[in-house]
Amino acid sequence: MTTTLAAPEGARTDQRRWWALVAIGLAQLLVIVDTTIVNIALPSAQHELGMSDAARQWTISAYTLAFGGLLLLGGRLADRLGRKNTLIVGAIGFALASAVGGAASGPGMFIAARAAQGVFAAMLAPSTLSLLTVTFTEAKERAKAFGIFSAIMMSGAALGLLAGGALAEYLDWRWCLYVNLPLAAVAAVLGWFVLPKVEGHRETKLDWISAILGSGGIVSLVYALSEAATRGWGSGLVLGFLAAAVVFVVSFVVRQTRVANPLLPLRILADRTRSAGYLTIAGASFGMFGMFLFLTYQLQAIMHYSPFQAGLAFLPFLLGNVLVSTLLSRRLLPRTGPRPLLVIGLLLMGAGLVVLTQLTPDSSYWGLILPVELVVGAGGGFAMPVVMNTATAGVEARESGVASAFITTSQQVGASLGTASLNTIASSATASAAGLGTVGATVHGYAVANGWGGAIVAAVAIGVGVLVGPKKA
Questions:
Q1: How many whole angstroms separate alpha carbon 419 and alpha carbon 404?
Q2: Distance from C-alpha of 109 to C-alpha of 95, rounded to nearest angstrom
Q3: Which in 266, 378, 405, 438 has the greatest CB count within 10 A?
């Protein structure tokens, strides 16, 4: 009788783990999709709410800066309060902020709602990877789960463009925010029943000064890079914020070496493979989010695709990413170790971006853009499961939240820096190519910026190869 009952119990436990992956995946999808879903709908929102161009930019920046700037604090909250609790509270708060944004009657209300989304995303996101780590402990299942999770993390931005295009074209731009409500509800309710209860470490102190220093450094740097596009690098405002960013970041690092409960324990970065993982996702996001920005404008403004058609045009990126991350990476990692997959993945992404230097107003989607998306997506599929798999390996349980948070921090900071700096490069290149006409100069700017993005991603690949070394995982 005992033997007969063991199998069903084991099957129930197995099903519970995969349902937990659904809840974790939905929670992660919420925060990643929202980095891009509003982009395609923004022209409609700007017109209806009477936003200026400056306010339009802050509807994106308010989310990414609040998210990236508060993630480390969110990771510490997850360690202190318990990851299941912070995931559920974060999902509910994210839904409420989305509802306010969808009902916005003016620019101020809309931007404030986007910032609130970022705050709750910073509470939610650090819980996902640490919960995944404790849910899947068997090597084969763990590799499969991390492959699926990494595909969600890297493909969510492209999925946001697809969903945003469909909602903006066939419903209304406000549904780009309302769509978060059912997703958040399912993640929170399902999570309540199936997620493992990981006790919080109440002795973990919250270092608010470090949170202010870290957030201040990120916000100052991204703001300076954004303003350089219109004010120029010699602007006193730009130079002032760059200097402030240096002061904030240096002060943050120094403080982490001196306080008893640092927001980011530097010992987490002492593992070379883990540090290489953080560098990988930052470099990949730097180039990828810049590519999404320029291709969105190329498809809609230059090639005259509708919002939904532009969203569909990003499907090859999703295809390449999902197939490689779920079918290849998880099988190769135990054999090769992390180094080859990280380096090959980044080099593929860099190569795809460099090919986009051939972008012109007459470029073919089928002959240029689609192949590039497949290559860049495949590159992300090789690298990201490795990052997910190694980020929390060997980290003490009381610090797994902050170690997980630093993955998403690296992604958001890389995305913010890439969008801001590559947009500045594109603007400068466009201004210097006025002889090509308005359309020609604009696309020339996209091409030059993508080339810089590809070069930086390739440089990161070399740095990662040196940092990890040949040792296997």
A1: 23
A2: 16
A3: 405
How far apart are alpha carbons 420 and 408 in whole angstroms?
A: 18
CA angle 431, 360, 369 (to 5 degrees): 125
Q: Flag whether pLDDT at 311 surpasses 90.
A: no
* C-alpha distances in Å from residue 263, one per residue of 146, 274, 342, 406: 26, 17, 27, 10
Q: Which two tokens stand for residue 205?
A: 């102190």
Weakest-pLDDT range from 140-149, 194-203, 216-225, 268-277 = 194-203
**Residue whose token pair is 């308010």:** 62
Residue 22: pLDDT band (50, 70, 90) is: confident
Token pair of 226 as six digits: 């954004």
DSSP-derived letter for residue 195 is S
d(CA 344, CA 176): 35
pLDDT at residue 473 is higher than 50: no
CA gyration radius for the chain? Answer: 21
How many Cβ atoms from other residues are within 10 Å of residue 89's Cβ?
17
* Residue labelled with tokens 């470490």: 201
Contacts of residue 381, defined as CB under 8 A and 6 or more positions apart, other chains included, come to 150, 151, 154, 320, 321, 322, 323, 324, 325, 326, 328, 329, 345
Token pair 């590809």: residue: 454
Identity of residue 68: G
Give me the amino acid identity at 99. Answer: A
**Cβ(132)–Cβ(87) under 8 Å?**
no
Q: Which of 347, 345, 377, 371 is nearest to 359 (CA)?
A: 371
Tokens for 307, please give them. Answer: 């919002």
Query: Which of 219, 314, 291, 211 has the alpha carbon at shortest distance from 256?
Result: 211
What would the two tokens of residue 302 be? 């230059």
In this structure, is the dihedral angle defined by the CA atoms of residues 26, 314, 117 and 73, taken in order, positive or negative? Answer: positive
